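Priority: low. Protein: Phosphoribulokinase. Input follows.
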Amino acid sequence: MNMKLFCQPSFLTGLVLRLALVLWVTPAPLTEWYLPFLDTSTNTLTLNPWGTWLDQGGAITAFPYGYVMWLAFLPAILVCKALALPLMFGYGTTLIGADILMLAVLRKIVPGRDRLLLAVYWLSPIVIVGSYVLGFNDLIPVLLLAGSLYFFKRARLILSGLVFITAVSAKLSMILALPFFLIYLQHNRPLRQYLPRLLIGLGAGTLATVLPFLLSSAGVSMLINNPEIGKVYELAFSIGDSSLLYVVPLAYLLMLYAAWRIKRPNFELFHSLLGLVFLLVVLMTPASPGWFIWAIPSLVAYQAASNRIAVAITAIFSLLYVVGALLITPDARLIVEQAAWLPQATSHLLFGGKLSSLVHTAMVATGIVLAIRIWRESVSRNDYFRLSRKPFVIGVAGDSGAGKDTYSDAIKGLFGSHSVTTLSGDDYHLWDRQKPMWQVMTHLNPMANDLEGFANDLVALTDSKNIHSRHYDHQTGRMSRPFMIQSNDFVIASGLHALYLPILRECYNLSVYLDIDESLRRHFKLQRDVHQRGHTEEKVLASFTRREPDSARFIRPQAAHADLVLSLQPIHPRILEGAGKNHPLHFKIVARSRNGLNELSLTRVLVGVCGLHVDMATRNDATEVELTIEGETSAQDIEMAARMICPRIFEFLDLKPQWQDGVMGLMQLITLSHINQALTKRFI
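Result:
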């Protein structure tokens, strides 16, 4: 943690306030439950402190927590006993230590917002009153849960699972978060492959902390007889004569369903849903005041992502919490009754009437407003939430040999094969290669392709439905049997006629046309068809002349419908003269966009970071922007440039995106810039 943080006046104010409360306030839970249990369990150290406590006639409700909660307070309690200090000092300093660690974890989850964190967390009335005035220990399990979330965000899943189980051991209520962890991993495709790591951490943590507790019959008895567990059933509606509808379990199950419906969550969305669950639980139950600390990390993240109104509403909610908690606290009533300077009717006015219920009602109303705002701002407006409703569809058209498959594979490598479905127009040829119809018709003729089937399948994938399609084998020239293709977060439809039909163009969020220099196209097509697809050189050369009329009539006009035209050009006209002598070919990229392509920032980055030569021009009455880019660049430079131009897009990329060198890397960068713009436009 940055040491400057400890010198901030707001931090010092909060620290002094905490120390003062530890020294001068002795809450009822400490004197009645926690400190007697900790005192007894440390007089004779044993692996079964719950059994020792009950054997000595202790209350069964005193310490319904697992080993982690006991071990968290044990060192400070032992030090206080050794120094003959009051045990409340050990309890309080443990909470302060956990508080500082929580601040450090929140700085990792919400970076760069130190002033806000000090204001909305370190000086939070909920944290200070709940922990130091009322004496509840919920800060310990919430700290462990926040630590698990931090490791989860960093994809360190074994540690995340291990720390999560320690949170459950500290307080069983944290188990509410486990299904959301599992749903997140199941639906986040880049992370799904690491689910076994989380399970390893969960298993190791269970063996180390939960299983030993379950072997203690006294500990299990104290947990089962904890009256707090039954509070979730107190809000219920009668259905008939003998049935009740429990609202809290119902709301929890509905939140689980809402989380399951989101097919591609990110961490912010997952964290927001988790916070909503805890917030709704404490709002709909006669909760212990300590339970409200469960929602603090998510409320802090929400305030950091929102505006001042969110901070103001959360502050009102916190103040109502403080007033409501003090009105139901016996210690507060005793203090008021013993204050001789207050009027005699004060106690009855504050504690004997409906004031506490009215304050609680106002607090719940404010909490519901917060929950609605969190759902509206952090969930329904989240890019991943919207993407989960409909895939992002990219259309790629171009002549034969223009590099459609190579380009599609490069884009697929950025998002990961697990998140991308590809639909190839070659799979919709009407006949196998051996059929006589190809003697009178070329593949470039729309009549030789099942474009209606191609369009229907693309519409189905766009609607998140699965399809059955064949695959054209270029080696054998035959179609395979139909197989299922699942829709995905991203769908790339490529083919000779990908932009030919209006219904196809309506499906795309981004349409791309590859317009390669004709001499280069013929060179690459000759290399591919001869060496990869088994055609003879004479047959390929003859196809150029035969296909030219159809190319001019059906293929090239599609460029007018593309949002982005990428043209691969030779750096000089005679570049292919030595192509057979194993020397590298050098190209330039001409990118033409109807939507604009962040041309100014892109030019600065390409020149300053990648060291390229860039010329910019406008065409068609300034409705199109054209960039001509020359030079060599590395995959590392492309990644750095992407982080500068469109950093938000990285949330959608694979954990380890496959960046390319050279012109293909430039195509990746320009395409990502357009995807970022298309996502922004789509979410307006």
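The two ends are 38 Å apart (CA to CA). Residues 3-228+240-385 form one domain.
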